[in-house]
Amino acid sequence: MTARNAFYAQSGGVTAVINASACGVIETARKHTDRIGKVLAGRNGIIGALTEELIDTSAESDAAIAALRHTPSGAFGSCRYKLKSLEANRREYERLIEVFRAHDIGYFFYNGGGDSADTCLKVSQLSDSMGYPIQAIHVPKTVDNDLPITDTCPGFGSVAKYVAVSTREASFDVRSMAKTSTKVFVVEVMGRHAGWIAAAGGLASTDDTPIPVVILFPEIEFNQEQFLSRVGENVERHGYCTVVVSEGCHWPDGRFLAEAGTRDAFGHAQLGGAAPVVAQMVKDSLGYKYHWAVADYLQRAARHLASRTDVEQAYAMGKAAVELALEGRNSVMPTIVRASQEPYRWEVGVAELKNVANVEKFMPRDFISEDGFGITGKCRQYLVPLIQGEDYPPYAGGLPMYATLQNVAVAKKLSGDFKL
Amino acid sequence: MTARNAFYAQSGGVTAVINASACGVIETARKHTDRIGKVLAGRNGIIGALTEELIDTSAESDAAIAALRHTPSGAFGSCRYKLKSLEANRREYERLIEVFRAHDIGYFFYNGGGDSADTCLKVSQLSDSMGYPIQAIHVPKTVDNDLPITDTCPGFGSVAKYVAVSTREASFDVRSMAKTSTKVFVVEVMGRHAGWIAAAGGLASTDDTPIPVVILFPEIEFNQEQFLSRVGENVERHGYCTVVVSEGCHWPDGRFLAEAGTRDAFGHAQLGGAAPVVAQMVKDSLGYKYHWAVADYLQRAARHLASRTDVEQAYAMGKAAVELALEGRNSVMPTIVRASQEPYRWEVGVAELKNVANVEKFMPRDFISEDGFGITGKCRQYLVPLIQGEDYPPYAGGLPMYATLQNVAVAKKLSGDFKL
């Protein structure tokens, strides 16, 4: 068997640990040079494959690749670009095959979430549909934690840790200020449809450090009256209250609390600004002084506070993807399987891509407290293992030493540009 | 000489390291029981002295006090409450003396910023003005870094580190996304009048990790045209741009970019929301997709990312305050003196309170680049030492173990309530 090259690309919103998966893919491929030639990365995701803008990762030293493990963001650039169906845009698939053939690419590793799993699924069918032999393996990634089958998604554990820690820290702050100043602190977190990230705010409160946290989930229709009543009770009883609001929180009629009216490349509504809306509501109805924060990219880029469990799982998913390819698999995604709850143990499983693509995993109703404003013991049991352990990046001069790769371009072999 | 008790209180906005100063005060006092009896803390700052709500810190174990060093926020509660002048409100001063006398308080340690230094100054004059013997020492604290004389203020170094690291992380994120999605990321940071915190965003970019950062300082009148032109240039050249906007950024006529119309207890305009204003401006004029974040309390509470230098200085200021008291000093504040730039060395100095109270230290013009959107080498030289070193709190179950004290109340000795 002769070695063929591998294509690796990052897709969708990046995370604190997607590069740890890239590290897992590349380091594992480097151990199997008899089967895998070079790992060529797509510059800016799948777009790099379409435009033949490939990055030669073999130009990077082992040390540079190792540093990806502690570097947030997407080292090769990501994109929001979803392939249409074969019927709707055959031209794109023909182009992919043209590029793959020109660069002898036999393995396709795509690192992304639900939309990307769909792209990966379509590529995995190219052998059958268009006669080009390729093995396509999806590497799970999404801070939203909304992929099915896998117990969790790399990227989520670190955001969860960030949100839990930040919520605890800011709650201590507002508790200090509450006598004469701020009584309510509102922090807005990501999670367009699924409330996993918001749920992590509930972890800030533990038996030995109780904190009155009210969570607004996208899965629960916003009930203003009940919400204000709950905030008021907390301030009466504890002197202060912390609110964690998901960007996806919405009114019964479906309107987001913070509808901006703009849409991203996938056609999703672009959100932001639920926190000031909620804070103003508290001020107007209850009269409490507030502060609010919107974490936005800070939460998903916060490699400085990554969960060690998450980093290890992200790396393992990259490694497993290559191993699955070497086993001859196609159209699959490695998964994280919770083998034991206490003590927490996990192992690597595998899922068929057709069962993953375009399926969103929401918070089960029994993970949300009956009143809709908190998490249950069952949810806590699920979440707590995912934020375990710290994995600090190295620092120099007071700042984390994050890697920026050279990203050396592979010489183009095709003539003519491809218009996206 | 018989031992007299000490009063300690926290004032104004809390920080990631104000409790490290409390730790320095209490641990040092505990070594001098021949001179200092108990340290009685004001519950919610100076209000606790007025209402005779005192906390007996001697009820806390050495371990609990030691844990303050790694706990953000104000362990005894803070307040925004400024004493009026002796002429304007003699009743408050008479009450303070009544409480001090009842509890044999001979030392007054007040941990705060410029407004608090003014309160401390007034208390320090009680010996002369009202015949009650007391030594009042101010312990510097403010994330705004705007106290005069001292080289820096405890609390600032940790916020600076948080802003520098978060700006770097989010910039890596937007750089990854810029091809098809977000091209401009805007993060809003604190700093009502002084741009020290915003300046720290400039540290995200270094020679080996260059990042196109545009900073909007409160010291520089906002020039929309020049700002947009600078952002556009960065996106053209680098593909993306990060904007760090101070909450205090304002138009030439003095209106804040994000004027909310409300005012805090000191009469300062309450701000928030400059980031969405700036982001929308970029979208409207340049058409770039944006994301924005407002760090708010997250930045000043982020003990998980504290600067070790800052923690050490905060502790040293608390310790020095007690030592100054033991030397018989009154109406002073320990300061941080930069003894050497390279290698950075600092020592403890002392300032007269009358030279500190109500004086704000702004960014010198030569710390801001000529175009007004960046920091100079001189500024970088000043800032870099302040973010050096990490000082991670201990973790359990994935979360930092922050201390919540028992805060045992001292039995009241006075009859009747005091109305604030």
Q: Can you characterise this structure?
A:
The structure is a homodimer of 420-residue chains. Chain A is of the alpha/beta class and 420 residues long. The first copy, chain A, folds into 2 domains: 4-141 and 305-353 and 389-400, 3-Layer(aba) Sandwich (Rossmann fold), CATH 3.40.50; 156-303, Phosphofructokinase domain (Rossmann fold). Chain A has 13 helices and 15 strands. Chain A has helices spanning 18-30, 46-50, 62-67, 90-102, 114-124, 126-130, 156-177, 196-200, 224-238, 274-286, 297-301, 308-326, 377-383, and strands at 4-10, 36-42, 54-56, 105-112, 135-140, 184-189, 213-216, 241-246, 259-263, 269-271, 290-294, 332-340, 345-352, 395-396, 399-400. In chain A, the strands form 5 sheets. Chain A has a 5-stranded mixed β-sheet with strand order 3-2-1-4-5, sandwiched between helices. Chain A has a 4-stranded parallel β-sheet with strand order 7-8-6-11, with helices on both faces. Chain A has a two-stranded antiparallel sheet with strand order 9-10. The interface between A and B is large, with 77 and 77 residues.
